[in-house]
Amino acid sequence: MIKRVLFIGQGTAAVAGVAVSVFMEKLFAGRLHVSAMKATELSGYRMTDRLDDCLIIAISQSGTTTDTNRTIDMARERGASVVGIVNRRNSDMTFKVDGVLYTSDGRDIEMSVASTKAFYSQVVAGYLLVFRFAQELELLSEEHLYRELEELERLPALMRSVLSEETQAKIRRLAREFAPTRRDWAVVGSGVTRAAADEIRIKLAELCYKSIATDQIEDKKHIDLSSEPLTLILTAGLSQVALRDAVKEVAIFRSHKSIPIVVCSQDFDEFDPYAAGVIQVPKASECASVLLNVVVGHLWGYFCALAIDEGAERLREARATAVAFFTAPGGVPSGTGLARVIVLAKRFQEDLVKGRFNSSLSVQVAAELTSLLGYLMGSRSLSQFAAEFQGRGTPRELTGTFITAVSKAIHELSRPIDAIKHQAKTITVGISRLEEVFEGPTFAPFKELGLSVEAIPYRDSVILRGLNRVVANVAGATSYQVEGLGALGEPIDESTVKTLCKVGVATNMTSRADGETKLVGNKEWSVRSGSLYLGRGSRDKRPIAIVPLVPRGRVEKLVLLHLDFVDQASRSDKIAVLQDLRQKYENLKSLVTERDVPWDDAYLDSIEVEVLVMLSVKDLARKVLEAQKTNV
Length: 632
Fold this sequence. Notes:
Layout: E1 4-9, H1 12-27, E2 33-38, H2 39-46, E3 54-60, H3 66-77, E4 81-86, E5 99-102, H4 116-136, H5 142-153, H6 155-162, H7 165-178, E6 185-189, H8 194-208, E7 213-215, E8 230-234, H9 240-255, E9 259-265, E10 277-281, H10 286-327, H11 335-353, H12 363-377, H13 382-389, H14 395-413, H15 444-448, H16 458-467, E11 471-483, E12 496-504, E13 517-518, H17 521-529, E14 533-536, E15 543-549, E16 557-565, H18 571-580, H19 584-593, H20 609-614, H21 617-631
Parallel strand pairs: 1-2, 1-3, 3-4, 4-5, 6-7, 6-8, 8-9, 9-10
Antiparallel strand pairs: 11-12, 11-16, 12-13, 14-15, 15-16
Helix pairs in contact: 1-4, 1-8, 2-3, 4-5, 6-10, 7-10, 8-10, 10-11, 10-14, 11-12, 12-14, 19-21
């Protein structure tokens, strides 16, 4: 029986899952536990042994997202049911899930960027699933369901109204006025609009080459208003009560010299006194309004990128003029060329004073350009140029230096909208989340003692797994509680150890730790080093292993294992075990060859398995060397 619904994805697909989950969580309150997270978050940190009560809705545009697909595999192994929302038919994901809801006919080839149209269709597909579940569980009346579906049906018309020339012109004007003037940007939303803020952040960051903050509207005043950011505030679809609170927040933003640009539904004008700009969208349902906020945000990102790139365009003209100088005889500009330089220089300086390059031009490059334009305009002597730029004071040298500097500025300001600078999907990589299996005789006692093998340090788990090749049986085991360690988990005088449980042959054995006693000896060493101890019992001299359990960063328990080794093992198994024992194989070879004796793996054939494992490297090397002397 399904008790949980979990939306997963990566990037913009994960945000689509959040958008749907927020609505579903409200609708299904008390009936199902609904949440959303990154696929990698589930596979790496939230995966449980059983997911047979969980329906996972996996979202992907391409269906080839490695991170998401690997998580699907892991979830299904644990009994989860999985439904995919995906664009491409016959993609990898479609063969991994129990059912698929396609978002197009599969012809979408927009694979190298986070697709905008994919996001809209993913959210709508998610809403359709939610409404179908709600209908099945009779959570919505027929009339309510009809109204919600009607809103989705008119969504294309609502989006077209936002894409009108009038709205686009307003967004373009606000972007040109404010985007180039602030280096720090933010997008904020609350409730249903929070996911919209996350989606806009992705596209805005990709188009404008910026690291952009997102937050809840109400929390922004507690975080980074000191940066006086350009902030896009998403309020379309919020309740009247929430809207009035949002007005107060925007007033706070403006009082701290931020530049708030507000997206809200039509016929709400209370933001006007405080916002630097208000962009209105049609009134719509909560579900539809989420996407209307996103449409504005996508347009905002597009026009902001254009606004920043305008600065680069002006400098491209300046560079072209400079190249003409550089190629002229002697590097001397003509009269008309010099006049053009003066015009461009004055325009650049005016833009600099107005803060038109604050968003993206570095201080170093701006200072270089200002200085070089002074030389080109003749207001500074070429002798000064030679001292400042460590070059010859000639017109050609000056022009060449200017071309280099202006090229740097163009690079910093260019925003090629049709080609993202760095895009992860150009390299097909992703998580593997390889699930290593730690089973066999050396791990069986932990289950019998009711202890998790995940608390064993990884390097020790590898050793125990390697020992399985040569351990026939673990005859018994004892678990101990460790108490009184220092602040950093180190043994101190007050540290103690106490027996918790015994199984197998250990049941009839007595230990000084049967009553709480001071932590000393091999147990103390294991705690202090946080490492597995291999040795022999102090009384019966039988092989033992002491394994520390570190569930929370310090040793909390110890497990003592009584080992029975096999009588015979292959040479390859012996080598593999020695390699697992902290490079014991390589160290043994080094000690032997140090004595000018060539190494041969055949040396291991005559050494018993138990001796090979329990003896120290030095003693093993001595044994090998003595055997070679005897043979000689």
